[in-house]
């Protein structure tokens, strides 16, 4: 016969509470909807970098696209947190791989503005690095191209991780989920014991009835 009391399995990574890092990275998604397009538009000029037509070009092409992408990422993450049964916004988080991808993405965006070449009617005006660090325009252009490719690749990875992310509850929710099969098993054991008791009672009742009938026959004889 199976034992009623079973020890629950130890917690795994899927049942542990989300870290503060995961929660913080979730809430960075909201300001990034506006801050990242604005950073690409005029980030380099905030540190004394050149300004030219590239910012105006970005304002009507890349910036609106990034705004929509980051808005979609935030809304999907928000819906996934609400759907998995979170009680309050303090528990909202993203998966750990997505949080790490966001950190690398934000860092790449930050660095790209320092090597981004700008230009105007008189030709290329260089980048912040070429003006303040003495970096050649050719090297700055190559670094700008490399970081730009990394940005688009990381954005694709973030979108993929966002839509495939499966959020688990905190430790309490996960523990309840682990205990559910044990409770069901315990109920099954109780049911088996009850059925055994009932079968035993019915068998005893039949034997007692047969004995009474035998005694009555003996009396008549």
UniProtKB/TrEMBL annotation:
Entry keyword set: Membrane, Transmembrane, Transmembrane helix
Transmembrane helix keyword on record: yes
Claim: Transmembrane is one of the keywords in the record: yes
Source organism, top-level taxon: Eukaryota
Transmembrane segments: 20-41, 53-78, 90-111, 145-163
Name under which the protein is recorded: Uncharacterized protein
Record organism: Ditylum brightwellii
């Amino acid at each position: 016969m199976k034992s009623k009391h079973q020890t629950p399995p130890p917690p795994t990574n899927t049942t542990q509470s989300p870290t503060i890092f995961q929660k913080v990275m979730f809430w960075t998604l909201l300001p990034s909807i506006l801050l990242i397009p604005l950073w690409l538009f005029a980030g380099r000029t905030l540190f004394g970098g050149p300004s030219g037509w590239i910012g105006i070009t970005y304002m009507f092409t890349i910036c609106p696209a990034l705004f929509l992408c980051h808005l979609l990422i935030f809304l999907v993450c928000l819906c996934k947190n609400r759907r998995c049964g979170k009680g309050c916004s303090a528990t909202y988080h993203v998966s750990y791989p997505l949080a790490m991808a966001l950190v690398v993405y934000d860092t790449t965006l930050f660095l790209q503005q320092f090597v981004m070449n700008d230009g105007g009617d008189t030709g290329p005006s260089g980048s912040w690095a070429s003006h303040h660090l003495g970096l050649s325009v050719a090297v700055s252009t190559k670094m700008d191209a490399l970081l730009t490719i990394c940005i688009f690749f990381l954005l694709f990875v973030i979108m993929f991780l966002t839509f495939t992310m499966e959020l688990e509850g905190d430790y309490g929710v996960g523990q309840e989920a682990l205990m559910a099969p044990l409770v069901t098993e315990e109920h099954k054991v109780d049911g088996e014991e009850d059925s055994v008791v009932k079968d035993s009672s019915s068998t005893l009742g039949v034997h007692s009835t047969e004995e009474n009938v035998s005694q009555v026959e003996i009396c008549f004889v």
